[in-house]
Amino acid sequence: MHGSFLSHRGGFWFWVALVLVLSSVLAYVWHEPLGQPNGGTWLGYTLGTVAALLIVWLTFFGVRKRAYYSRLGTVKGWLSAHVYLGGSLLVLGTLHSGFQFGLNIHTLAWLLMVLVIVSGFYGVWVYWRYPERITRNRDGMTRQLIFREVADIDRKASVIVEGLGSPADRMVISAIQLFSIGGGAWHQLTGRDRSRIMVAASKGSAKRWVQVANPTQQRLLDELTGLLSRSADPQEAALLQELIDLISRKAKLMRQLLADIRLQGLMEVWLYCHIPLTMALLATLMAHIVSVFFYW
Amino acid sequence: MYVLIRRLGAGSGPTRTFKDEELAVDKLSIGRGTDQELLLPGDRVAYQHAEISLAAGQFRIRALASSGITVNGRSCKMAVLNSGDQILIADYRLIVLPASEGVDLALSLEVLEQQDAPSVDPASFTIRLDVLQNWRPRRWAWLLFTVLLLGGLLLPALVAMVPGWQNTFRSTPLPDDSFWLSGPLHSMHSTIGKDCQACHTKPFAPVTNEACMDCHADTAVHVSEVHPDTSMFEGERCASCHHEHNGEQRMVFDDQRFCSDCHGNLEQRMSDAPAVERATDFHADHPDFRLSLLQWQPQSQSPRQAVDASLQESSHLTFDHATHLDPQGIKSDDGDWQVLNCGDCHQMTVGGVNMAPINMDQHCASCHALSFDLQDPQRVVPHGKPDQVLASLREYYAAQFVQNRAGAGDIRASRPGGLNNLSELQREGLVWVENKSRAVAEDLFERRACATCHEVERSAEDPAQWLVKPVRLNEEWFASSEFPHGRHTQSECIDCHAADQSAQAEDILMPDIAICQECHKGQQANEGLRSGCISCHSYHQFDVHAELAP
Q1: pLDDT for B498-523, tens place per residue?
Q2: Are residue A51 and residue A162 in the same domain, yes or no?
């Protein structure tokens, strides 16, 4: 199982985190501070100190995972501890706040902490589930192979259209040339296909060519099916049928590719939130600690 | 079935080399998997790509991989194979050969030349997939870190520490140290505004009591300076009980543990026996009420004492609450029956904390008129000192004398030499007026008007003088707590003060703790009116402990 870091050493760090969370919750319930619960009681200081040390230590995971020669535990063990202790921080940090929130640097620190943890949880989820989904989607192929298949289909299609002439040739070649996949982060993560195609648009008596969207080659397939239904020549029909088969195959490959790009992107993108948010949290945490003692 | 595989090699036409291989199989499985009967290496071939089977005398090829197969130029999933059919699987071409003897199916196998895709370069797609990598999370991470450190820590710290910056930043929309604020100031402190340094005089040091006393200099301390154990309070901070930045309405925390901390074990904390009893919770652990009574020294109350049957108030008044509150009514001097309520005499002061003093003119006189002459019931003596009463009577009867003797006086005075009789008339008048006034005064002081309510006695030095004992009504029964009558108006007066059963002015009508405890429970109670110490007591009440002063 890919998520085996979750059960590292029989879930040792899970139990450590659970003990930490339960003891904090029990202490919070048992503790009846004079005034109202906040970070300034002895329990508040204790929880805050433990949470701050945890945050600093959790940040060091980024260093440890690159320290390939380190003998200080395995990276898998560190990841296991990182995930479980990071999760426990959600409880520790919140109890430290005493549920006092406001528009200030202190609540910002808490909010950033929550965002870092939530993005981390999302990372655990994708690392746990997505490799399997990616493998299933690729169906024994690699991304490079799919590209080669697509190129193969394009080659075959461009040979076939030579026997068909206009307008099929213009549409098929333009679909190949205006084929587009990937793009910006948004397009990658939403799996949108921005491929386009030139189709004939008759406006009055004049006929001209316009570029329209061709997501997963569907527009091309629609146009070819239209040509097939109007075709009277059996030889032409046979060529069109062959072309439709090829493009259908290409459409399927494209859907596979789009899904692959999307899944791969989602598996990476959480870290692009997790890391900058962590650094933002570190800065805010420093400001939080200094400011509460500055204005004691 | 027996299958012949002819692997075509180099060359072309009849000189082309080949290598035959015979297989005896149930089905001919084709793929790149090593368990396949016909192994076709190459990424584009699936592990199990296709299979050829014999059924009803026909050979059928079935595609197992999603990329499918091409038979005679047509992509398909399944096809019946005849001699001469061409099968394309990725870059391999299989041709069905005419069957030869001893072989059910013969296939030639050749590897096609790799052709480059003419129109689409796969590299052109992948380039666009690098966008995510171009985000460079580290750069964002350090940018965010720097911005937040500068804006969240450095700038506010400079604003807080550089006096010149404070006005500039705090009076403009520029960012300042206000987002360090952990919560809003109490509404009473809102005048401080953004001047954090008004209280936080020194960085990295807790707010000092001196900072509070700058404005709150007159706040009474809990014990006087002469208290033998003032050392107990050393190190205590205003901020121990007053937590600022906890919202606009919360500054004083009513947690009774602020008090019970000391009042739960005063014996151990104090050098002498404590003057107050242990108290930690109003319902569970609080001594009975003790009353302080007015003493005869000016402005002084007695030490607080427990209520028992012997404790009486000596106000020198005679008053019967029960009779006045008779539900049937009470007969007034003019003969009317009037039903009285507590509120007819006892009214709250403005502010609703205490009850206003009883006043003869307002509360008693409408029934208890100080009239003395049945012929002239409107005529009253003043409610004042005995001398004033006597003077008033003398004036009244002098006037009477003058009027009654007017006829005779006219005649004598109009005669020549008549004035000689004036001194005789004066003497007669003086004697008559004095006797009449004294007789009426005696009746008023000792039998009728005054004696109804007051204790009156004749002076020891001058038996001709009356002494009305001074009225000293107790005003502050509970010296160390405050009872806001205005906040208890939903209760009846007699719920706490059993006035309807009191026939004597000496009766003390103060409630005991049990009556309060009917509604007021301890602060930790699960039900009822949870009441902490400061519901009734004030911490900053210096004179509570005045009795400890030497």
Answers
A1: 999 999 988 999 998 999 999 999 98
A2: no
Q: Which residues contact B417 (CB under 8 A, 6 or more apart)?
A: none
Q: Do B125 and A246 touch (CB under 8 A)?
A: no
- Residue at A165: amino acid letter: G
Which residue segment(s) compose the domain that B449 sits in? 386-468
Buried b / exposed e over A103-121, threshold 16 CB at 10 Å, is ebbbbbbbebbbbbbebbe
Supply the pLDDT for residue B133: 60
Task: Report if residue B352 sits inside a domain.
Answer: no
Query: Chain A: nearest CA to B204, how far in angstroms?
Result: 4
How many domains does chain A contain in total?
A: 2
Is residue A55 within 8 A of residue A283, CB to CB? The reply is no
B41 falls in which pLDDT band (50, 70, 90)? confident
Quick check: B550 pLDDT over 50? no
Residues A259 and A280 in one domain: no
Same structural domain, A135 and A281: yes
> Nearest-CA distance from A213 to chain B in Å?
17
Interatomic CA distance for residues B242 and B207, integer angstroms? 11
Domain that holds residue A118: 4-139+267-294
Same-domain pairing of A44 and A91: yes
Sheet holding B78-81, edge to edge: B38-39, B28-31, B50-55, B58-63, B78-81
B80 assigned to some structural domain: yes
In chain A, what are the helix, strand and coil shares in percent, each to the nearest 5? Answer: 75, 5, 20
- Tell which of B84, B111, B138 closes a domain: B111
* Residues A128 and A53 reside in one and the same domain: yes
Q: Residue B43: its pLDDT value, please?
A: 74
Helix, strand, coil distribution of chain B in percent, nearest 5? 35, 15, 50
Residue A140 to residue B47, Cβ atoms within 8 A = yes
Please indicate whether residue B463 or residue B399 has the higher confidence score (pLDDT): B399
A155/B145 CB distance under 8 A? no
Last residue in a domain, options B443, B468, B493: B468
Indicate yes or no: CB of A294 within 8 angstroms of CB of B207.
no
Give the residues of chain A that fall short of pLDDT 50. Answer: 1-2
- Asked if residue B326 is part of any domain, the answer here is no
ipTM of this complex > 0.90?
no
- Interface probe for A, chosen from B131, B197, B204, B524 (most Cβ of A below 10 Å), is B131
B261 in any annotated domain: no
Contact with chain B for residue A178, Cβ under 8 A: no
For chain B, the domain total comes to: 2
Question: Which residues does chain B have within 8 Å of residue A150's beta carbon, measured at their own beta carbons?
Answer: 120, 122
| A117 shares its domain with A196 | no
What's the 3-state SS for B149-193?
HHHHHHHHHHHHHCHHHHHHHHCCCCCCHHHHCCCCCCHHHHHHC
Closest CB from B44, B142, B156 relative to A149: B44
Cα distance from A32 to chain B (closest Cα, Å)? 10
Q: Which CATH number goes with the domain that contains B39? A: 2.60.200.20
- For residue B129, the distance in angstroms to the closest alpha carbon of chain A comes to 6
pLDDT band at B141, cuts 50/70/90? confident
Same domain for A273 and A131: yes
A117 in contact with chain B, both atoms CB, cutoff 8 A: no
Interface probe for A, chosen from B43, B48, B67, B114 (most Cβ of A below 10 Å), is B67
Cα–Cα distance for residue pair A59/A276, rounded to 1 Å: 11
A96-118 residue pLDDT tens: 999 989 899 999 999 999 999 99
pLDDT value for A54: 94
pLDDT averaged over every residue in chain B:
83
- Give residue A20's identity as a one-letter amino acid code: L
* Residue B135 pLDDT level (bands cut at 50, 70, 90): low
